[in-house]
TrEMBL record:
PROSITE patterns, A to Z: FBOX
Coiled coil residues, start to end: none
Name listed for the protein in its UniProt record: F-box domain-containing protein
Pfam family, any one: F-box-like
Start and end residues of each F-box domain: 68-115
Superkingdom of the source species: Eukaryota
Amino acid sequence: MGDRTALESALFAVLDPVEKDIQRIYDALGSQLDSTRSRYMLLCDTRACVERWVNRVLLPMSRNINQGCYTTRLPDEVWSDIFARLPPTERFSIPHVCSRWSAMARGMPSTWTTLEFLPRDNPFLVETLVPRSFPHGLSLTFNFSDGRYLPLLNQWAPVIDSPWVRMRRLYVLRRGCSPTAADAVPELIIPKAPMLEDLCIEGPVILAVDKDSATALKRARLTQVAVACHPSFSAWPFSNIESLIWRPCPTSSFYEEIQFLMRGCVALRSLILYGLGTRQSPVQDPSWDDMSSHPLQQLTLMGSEHFFSLGAVYDFFAFVPHIIWYDDDFDPEVPPGFIDQVGRARKILVRSSLRAGIEVRNSGDHKLYDLQVLDLLRRELLRIPEVDTVLYRSLIRNHLVDLELPLEVWYGIGALGRLPFLQLHRLVLHEIDAIMGTTCASPTCPALREIVLHVRTDPGQSVDLIPFIASLATGCVFPLESVVLSVWDRTALGAMLEEPRPTLGMERWANVVTVSDDYCQSVLDGGASFYDGEMWQDTL
């Protein structure tokens, strides 16, 4: 039977009564079986029996089973035999099958492993069917918009031999609910469930965990779920969980819950946080635990509603070697497909690529850490609250190797932080005329080797960039390899093109090159080509 398909197994089960009918006809003939008339009667009766079963059972049942709809009216014993032979992966809707089983006195298939309950189902079916199914590795799906099944799940929690003990997968789907008050969010208690490996909860739900909760959980997807931090224990008990997708409940205390999760998820290697929004209570200066020894390898931050929270979140996850930030928000109603939509996100920052110096390129063959960071800073940095600048400050200073942005933003970064740009190798600045009157100190760049400055001045106006360049050169570990000045009018540089004055740091220059402003477009292309088709480095 192991090689049979689901349909073949079901048909085999139904053919068994046909065989019994034919056997009864054969036994009734007895010693008269040798006569021609008896053999003819046997043939006719057998044909009638087979046709009756084919017309009544096999044809409609084959259509229904192939369509995944088990509505054929069969005796309870037949359905029990059929579904006992179906593979564990087969899923079906309970009321279509057992609408005849009112009292559940007989015919209960105890080998069922996968049960799905829909919004229109009677909760009585859940209360009756689930406790009477005894296979190890039970998979349950509750798809409903109200909280009708949650009290029943919570009722099973303290029972020693409850369905939780043999549950392998649990999906609780409360789609289409958007309560605004915290007291309107129901609670789901997760008790001891040693076989539970896959958990999916689509809220709004408050997840309350017991100190003896499941220890076998490997994967979890929590959508609009708040985690209840009970005082009876100090850590999230799912210590074996390796992959977690979490969209916090809007009314949750996010900063407390993320630490609560991380303290207990000691085996977590992949974490996706999405939908971080302004409805979560902001904390200007959260006190984070030290997670430097945590094995988390990849963090994905998703969602556009992060005007206050992402900066602090990034500070907490500064130890993670691979961080991806997608700026597109996703519909919480379709979480099974949102991972596939990630490829269409507009912005991405990959720390591991920046740290290793790997050139990550998009479909236009542009380095993502050039163009994406440039676009991000130009549109975001000057208008976000102070707490969010932690994200950009930490990322840029520690891992950025190539940066292009307006001079005003460059000075804005310098005024916000204390640490230098440790890995910055090439710096491109626009709108150099804004340097006049600037009092802020320039950030320190010990690894800087190349500077490109776009000077925008009015006709007849001159600008002296020597103090600015000297301040950058002073903080460099090695002499500058090149300084490229892009100007509309070469006369605006004035005495800069003459013999350098004895200014501190000027002796560290290796080359000074001036080009026309046609070079601006080549810089936007990543600095790989000169306006006349030559490599600009070859002109040094």
